[in-house]
Amino acid sequence: MRGFTYLSKVFHSHSSYSKLLVLCSVSTGGLLVYAESNVESGKQVVEQNQPESKKKRVVVLGTGWGGTSFLKDLDISSYDVQVVSPRNYFAFTPLLPSVTCGTVEARSIVEPVRNIIKKRSGEIQFWEAECLKIDPENHTVSCRSGINDNLAGHNDFSLQYDYLVVAVGAQVNTFNTPGVMEHCHFLKEVEDAQRIRRTVIDCFEKSVIPGLSEEERRTNLHFVIVGGGPTGVEFAAELHDYVYEDLVKIYPSVKDFVKITVIQSGDHILNTFDERISSFAEQKFQRDGIEVSTGCRVTSVSDHFINMKVKSTGKHVEVPYGMVVWSTGVGTRPFVKDFMEQVGQEKRRILATDEWLRVKGCSNVYALGDCASVDQRKVMEDISAIFKAADKDDSGTLSVEEFRDVLEDIIIRYPQVDLYLKNKHLLEAKDLFRDSEGNEREEVDVEGFKLALSHVDSQMKSLPATAQVAAQQGTYLARCLNRWDQCKSNPEGPRRFKSSGRHEFLPFEYRHLGQFAPLGGDQAAAELPGDWVSMGHSTQWLWYSVYASKQVSWRTRYLVVGDWVRRYIFGRDSSRI
């Protein structure tokens, strides 16, 4: 008792914001800790003794491929980094089609953002919220938390930035087709894949209910995929395997009513791939019984029917369905559209950046991934300035030697020049100077120079909206910010043809590392660097190894591989969870 009396006097004689009472239980050996907070006027008093940071503040919007790769490579000792995203995880989106059918579980392909932050010594701040508006004039972003409104505290807040990185991805593009938003499934997020998985099971469960006609069963088990791109084709292949490897065994009475249809507006599916892959995919789908309707455009979707127009005949067709998955491209998010209007890009379909990923019209805002497009500058826009910079002796003509001196800078600044030289098999600078009859010329005037490069800009290509592009852009931008001070004093970029000096950084250069198209039945097709094409069972094993190695952590790598092994041994789960 004397001990407790002494402790009580000590606690009450020393004023502090927290009082700690420790009670030791002799009988159990347990420890109870009680903290009492000093509360004044109903508000918790918080002391902030930390000095204000003098680091440049970088705000990152989004935790997808671009944002995550940027965060993993950025030197956070030089910046105060704040991240805002409506999802507190990174998702390995190329495996979303596998999630729809239970080949891989949803939690196996996601990594909590705070786990990624923890690996960076916890110096990155994260808020689970959605960006509502970007104010480029005042350098602020307005955000709103989507967490339960019943919890205490406000939901709206704003952040100041010195540099803003917009990596929010894109939303589904419905092309304003009536009924799509109300009746179709999408495959952009983990939640989308989970909804599709439940709906597939619902279609089978409803079809085995007694008293349904054959026509009703066929309607319920007709799965339609709109869009013959990589996502649509991979989902169709996954669904086919799920149905014929697992579901028909537990729903044998309706196995003859199942139908899978892919609707594609173009002439072929996988039209962004090599023609050999497209043809291989169509032949395999034909063997598997997956119907491919090419040259068809969906005009509307109702609660039970999908209406489409056959381009070749102009005929309108009404098709009953049980489930529709819409996978036909991407569109710009509303707050990004609003931002585009503020920076003078209101007439564009997608946010434009320069070759250094800076948003055009806004010097301290960068954009990565699907939400933006790199607007490559044309050679012909600067052709006179290039000629003047290369003509060192101001003779009014350009010699082969003078052109050769600036050719490397031209290729770095305008990569379409390099593509043109390779496609035309032009090995030397002097080959560009040949006249219309193929004769060599030692020098050309400005008009001859314009004529020599007049077809170069036809080689310009927009970058695909893929995870590979976004990840490379995030890594590139992090490298630029890491070397900011160094490159300001010692520029590493190409020559400025319209002014003196050089650009601080090399422009972003996309390196295509190949792409896969899983086609079901443990077969896949792949486009590999160097115009290599691989198809068949061996390519599927290559797909397994590449996708396992590309996981963001050892935890997800172990879970994904474990799911693949489980599927081979036990099959896919058909529980509606």
Automatic annotation (TrEMBL):
Q: Which GO terms describe its molecular function?
A: calcium ion binding; NADH dehydrogenase (quinone) (non-electrogenic) activity
Please provide one cellular component term from the Gene Ontology annotations of this protein.
Answer: mitochondrial inner membrane
Report the EC number(s), separated by commas if there are several. 1.6.5.9
Look up the record and name the cofactor or cofactors this protein needs: FAD
Q: Does the keyword Lyase apply?
A: no
Query: Which UniProt keyword terms apply here?
Result: Calcium, FAD, Flavoprotein, Membrane, Metal-binding, Mitochondrion, Mitochondrion inner membrane, NAD, NADP, Oxidoreductase, Peroxisome, Transit peptide
Q: Which reaction does it catalyse?
A: a quinone + NADH + H(+) = a quinol + NAD(+); a ubiquinone + NADH + H(+) = a ubiquinol + NAD(+)
Protein localization:
Mitochondrion inner membrane; Peroxisome
Q: What SUPFAM superfamilies does the record point to?
A: EF-hand, FAD/NAD(P)-binding domain
Q: Does the keyword Oxidoreductase apply?
A: yes
The record describes its membrane topology as:
Peripheral membrane protein
What enzyme category does the UniProt record give? oxidoreductase
Domain named EF-hand: residues: 378-413
**Assigned protein family:** Belongs to the NADH dehydrogenase family.
Q: What is the protein name given in its UniProt record?
A: External alternative NAD(P)H-ubiquinone oxidoreductase B1, mitochondrial
Q: Upper lineage ranks?
A: Eukaryota, Viridiplantae, Streptophyta, Embryophyta, Tracheophyta
